## 1
Amino acid sequence: MARRLLLLRHGQTEFNATRRMQGHFDTELSQTGWQQAQAAAEMLVGQPIVKIIASDLRRAKDTAQVIGDQLNLPVSLDSRLRETDLGDWQGKTHEEVDSAFPGARARWRFDATWAPPNAETRQEVAARAFTVVEDLLQEVEQWEGNTVLIVAHGGTISALTSALLGFADSKHPLFSNLGNTQLAQIVGRDVPEGYPVHGNKAVQWYVEGWNIDRVL
């Protein structure tokens, strides 16, 4: 039986609008972000969602709560779904980072094992977010044939998607540029015992859609 996983990026913040790097900074939704959250909530009406879980940072938490209110579902929070800790880059614009660390942003985008000063790697982000899905597989008994919604951050969703597929570190850049309140749609299917899958449960994950604005 298939388990659908929807990964939704939070609504826009002023940091997003001004190309400023957020990381663990606890920024709020902009007016546009609140509107995007409401539109996402309305889009998800009628989907067989049995669980909503979100990053505990406000931009994700508030986006998830708008959706939860619309769908009459509670929202669980998990700090393992936070955005990448960007260390010394947090709060800086892209231009400021490029000026202070020439060429570093390109390396960061393409090397999942490299981190900015005092930050974490995408590899580390993938590892912590992956454990959330492992826990959900054990805890959400009604997931089979239904949907779980995770509301998180662009970097986290990219890293988690790569981890679920079992991608090598060099393949992580294949999933990028997820827009605000856009979706990654993934499905997990049980596989025969002994089949080589990534993780500790016999579930193979497949991508059905990336950077989409509605459920396929």
## 2
Amino acid sequence: MKETKWWLRDGARFKHVKRPYDIDTVKRLRGSVKIEYSLAKIAAEKLWDKLHTKKYVRALGALTGNQAMQQAKAGLDSVYLSGWQVAGDANDSLQMYPDQSLYAVGSVPTIVKRINNTFQRADQIQTM
């Protein structure tokens, strides 16, 4: 809990966020089961570090796990998933839409899951 208090109060990420409640209230309401999303946490921490230590963060758009993996192998700092590309070419509705978020709500999470699965599999192979 000390770590959470520090992160919310002193951490740079939430420096300008005002909260009308305290950490004890949050702890009481969240229950006892701690849910963690390992891939999201690791990726967010890496991106946060890059955004604060590099002059810029290089990225190209990827619609498939293989494209993302090739970008990582080429040394790019991050992978970008473009909403307009999903609308036009890779949505779950199998239609072409304008860039107005008209496609099925699960379209982007599906692609992110494919990309994450590709990175997980590459990691499994590399650590065998």
